[in-house]
């Protein structure tokens, strides 16, 4: 196939996936008793703070091999902002192709409620990850300062010691070529050593800030899109139900029935490789944002309200996942 044919092939796959994606869960999802008042959490997301993060992060390219200092500055910014939200940032150094950068991560502590049939609380978590590096020459406001900004705002608004599970938040390097997901791969391995098989789902925030006139069939230009590996249907159903119930943002999602390259385009890949149900949340990359990977991917090109809605959707979705199937949810329902 020549380049035009490959491009055409890819576009057809994207259009097919979009035509299958739905804004409603495939089954009834019971959200009764998710603790912590998700509607109030969604309302507390501030668009001004999100855009301030985007502007702070996207002052210039953060490509690890040509703008290492900028990439380091982004990691430092994340650390400082997590601390400002009274969380304890941790750092995991990762070396890839001669460059060392940290995964900056933290855990919003859960309530440690004891699950049915267990004698002691088992540490269990859900994960939100966003990459802070960019391609060479692009300031990466959408890709992916928007994702990191969303993560920082989620860190600020999530309730502490309220949800049954911990919510792990991680900003990672080495997503863009030739990073090969090295940051998230090291982190997913590390996290598995901490939580064992207690990680119920991982979501990658991969561009949260662009709405646009549709450029391919099936895109509304207005929805945050969730794309999961085969088998992630229950996770996507829960994320959709939570967004529909509590977020002003619109979301559509699909557990992709077959393994296609379009679902392998973000750091959730690394969690999937550890056997964790893994989903990407995205505004759709180059099929929506014409500034994708360009020097023109600047803060002014983003849609702040879309970014706020997407962040709300992720915050309440994580709250639902952190309570999912947990007896405290059932207890509250009975109460
Ligand atoms: Zn990206």
SSE blueprint:
Blueprint: H1 3-20, H2 38-43, H3 47-57, H4 68-84, E1 90-96, E2 99-108, E3 125-131, H5 141-157, E4 166-172, H6 182-195, E5 199-206, E6 224-228, H7 233-246, E7 251-255, H8 268-272, E8 278-282, H9 304-321, H10 327-334
Parallel strand pairs: 3-4, 3-5, 5-8, 6-7
Antiparallel strand pairs: 1-2, 2-4, 6-8
Helix pairs in contact: 3-5, 3-9, 4-5, 5-9, 7-9
Bound molecules: zinc ion.
Zinc ion binds next to α5.
Percentage of residues in helical conformation: 25-40%
The total strand number stands at 8
Secondary-structure element string? HHHHEEEHEHEEHEHEHH
The class by helix and strand makeup works out as alpha/beta
> Structurally, how many domains make up the residues?
1
Helical region count?
Answer: 10
Which sequence of strands runs across the widest sheet?
Answer: 1-2-4-3-5-8-6-7
**How would you describe the shape?**
globular
Rg result: 19 Å
What's the pLDDT, averaged over the residues? Answer: 92
What does this structure look like?
The chain has 335 residues and is α/β, with parallel strands linked by helices. It has one domain: Aminopeptidase. The protein is 38% helix and 16% strand. It has helices at 3-20, 38-43, 47-57, 68-84, 141-157, 182-195, 233-246, 268-272, 304-321, 327-334, and strands at 90-96, 99-108, 125-131, 166-172, 199-206, 224-228, 251-255, 278-282. The chain has an eight-stranded mixed β-sheet, sandwiched between helices. Helix 5 (141-157) packs across helix 9. The longest helix is centred in the first third of the chain and has 18 residues, at 3-20. The protein is globular, with a radius of gyration of 19 Å. Mean pLDDT is 92; it is low at 328-335. Zinc ion binds at residues 131, 143-144, 175, 206.
